[in-house]
Task: inverse folding
């Protein structure tokens, strides 16, 4: 497959959330606001691209018996870098994302791409795959967060869209955990209808 094809497949055909249904914990927890979703998507995307790059570059040097621990060390290094940079430059977002930044280390999307794709392909293909999966994950986060923030707060990125009257009587379930699961079901149903 071409590099463009590797990139594009992560956005829709193999979208980690809407197609593969991976990485649901941070997805459901961090989509109550668009700001949190974009921050989490950027952090996970950065780790995806960098870890895919390094795993592909070192794939012949890493012994097969210790490849998973090596991948986790590589991923943990980039997660630590993201954690420190976010804490230094965007402390409010870092505080909002909380424990979900360190938990990127065990995100099945990232480990799955390292094991299932990056260790079997060239560096350019692995980077294109990481970019596509990162964009696909961020796109999914943005779609869900848009619905949840508008319905639950009447805002989008903090901008009041539905007027002050909506703020007195919002659809609160949209920003709570049950609302995330319900909306996720509707979104997955929509994508299944599109495929059929």
Result:
């Amino acid at each position: 497959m071409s590099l463009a094809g590797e990139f594009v497949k992560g956005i829709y055909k193999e979208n980690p959330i809407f197609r593969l249904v991976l990485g649901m914990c941070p997805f459901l927890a961090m989509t109550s606001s668009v700001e949190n979703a974009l921050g989490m998507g950027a952090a996970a995307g950065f780790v995806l691209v960098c870890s895919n790059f390094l795993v592909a570059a070192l794939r012949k040097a890493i012994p097969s018996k210790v490849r998973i621990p090596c991948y986790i060390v590589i991923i943990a290094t980039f997660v630590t870098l993201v954690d420190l940079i976010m804490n230094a430059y965007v402390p409010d977002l870092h505080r909002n994302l909380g424990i979900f930044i360190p938990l990127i280390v065990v995100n099945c999307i990232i480990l799955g791409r390292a094991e299932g794709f990056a260790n079997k392909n060239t560096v350019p293909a692995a980077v294109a795959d990481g970019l596509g999966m990162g964009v696909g994950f961020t796109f999914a986060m943005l779609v869900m967060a848009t619905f949840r923030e508008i319905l639950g707060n009447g805002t989008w990125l903090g901008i009041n869209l539905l007027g002050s009257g909506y703020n007195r009587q919002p659809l609160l379930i949209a920003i709570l955990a049950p609302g995330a699961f319900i909306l996720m079901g509707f979104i997955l149903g929509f994508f299944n209808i599109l495929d059929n």
